[in-house]
Amino acid sequence: MNRTLPDNLLAAMSDRLSASIGLYFPADRWTDMERGLERAAVELGYPSTLAAVQHWLTAGGPDRAQLEALAGQLTVGETYFFREPKSFEALGRKILPDLIAERRAKGLLSLRIWSAACCTGEEAYSLAMLLDTLLPDRADWTVTLLATDVNPRFLRRAAEGVYGEWSFRGVDPALRARYFTSLPGGRYRISPDIARMVTFSYHNLVDDPYPALESNTNAMDVILCRNVLMYFNGAQANRVVRRLARSLVDNGWLLPSSVDGAPPMFAPLTFVPFEGATVYRKLPLPAHAAPPAPVTQHFSILPLAPVPEPAPLPVAAPPTVAVKPPVPSLDHCRSLYDQGRYGEAVEQLEARLAFAPADDAAMLLLARSYANQGRLAEAAHWCQGVLDHNRVSAEAHHLLAMIQQERGDAAAAAASLQRALFLAPQSIATHLAMANLARNEGRMRDARKHYRNIMGLLEGHRPEEILPDLEGMTVGRLMDVAAHAHAALGQAMGGEF
């Protein structure tokens, strides 16, 4: 296909796509981009690709429906079960068995895995099947398997869990027989038991905030982010890798694809050699090294004549004065947290609380720091510490709910969110948490009510305004999320609006 759009429009559209959905098309891929733009223009009913591009560039950018069409036509949905077998071999023979043994030894039966850019769900379901074979006592475990993508169409297909023969190439027929039900027309549906292990969610790796308790993108043991970083420009890819690294617990694992970038891009992490697989690990930062001992230089000087040492004069010893270490400032602790240095943030916050034990802000930040390390018992303890003397802290109730939900206690999370909303009925973050919880539990009418409340609370705010209670999400982004979820739930309920 020869390009028909002028280079200046293609360059501008490449920049717009990069900024809005994180898809980067350098000049040598503009032909592919124009082909996708043409398909999206036809789908959306524009008279020509030129008219569509001009509208997308001049009308404030594509809206949610248009972005969905663009993502659908510009991203590749080519995947299958247990794709890149060597990566799954590394997971199944070493990484996950070691994690499982470690957790058993500690009595903490939990695992957290994120399939970022999950496409149509084959990767996430492959992980679920692998875990099922590795955990004969899976019912005793709390397993979080989050699967996200920027393409809502892929997510809908993933949630349906129905696949054709092409998705099973290279897969052992016995595995298909075990985990799938045959449907007419050569299609297969994933087992409901395996499907329940996976939570599918929209997430933009470039724009959306993470790690965050609110999106469940924190404290991951393993992240698979394969065949996606190649879509980003260099700065975006580096930023995504740093944020993925922050989303991992210490000693957590990141598995990109071999085509996603060179080792320097993964500098926050350490390359771990596995045959045929690209694997990185987040090793704990080394303890602060002690300052080097002062070096004493010795000079040999031959004196002209011996000089007797003078008798020392009596000197009174100075009084001993205990020097108290400075109290770490909350701003310094927040800076450590924002950099993903959660272990250091914990140390500094605990030092601060030793001097100021009733500092609610420090306790809540400490709870978040612990939660981002996967230490949920300690996180809950510090939330409760706030509530012990301040029962009307809406933020503490909200944060405790996020921790309870992560620990698999949906009933306790719902009760905590109700308390938070009673104390702060205008809290957008709490309405969003309640909407997501209701949606996960199949309470669609309740979920839609909270999404409507969110849209109402956002009215009058500038789209670029940052929502501090949502880890930096913008008003415009949340408005899109709420509107899309509200409409999708209405359709699922039979067109009820």
From TrEMBL:
Coiled coil region boundaries: none
Gene3D superfamilies in UniProt: Tetratricopeptide repeat domain, Vaccinia Virus protein VP39
Stored Pfam families: CheR (PF01739), TPR_19 (PF14559)
GO biological process: methylation
Record keyword Methyltransferase present: yes
Top-level lineage group: Bacteria
UniProt-recorded Gene Ontology molecular function terms: S-adenosylmethionine-dependent methyltransferase activity
Domain CheR-type methyltransferase: 1-285
Stored SMART domains: MeTrc, TPR
Keyword terms: Methyltransferase, S-adenosyl-L-methionine, Transferase
Official protein name in the record: Chemotaxis protein CheR
UniProt source species: Nitrospirillum viridazoti CBAmc
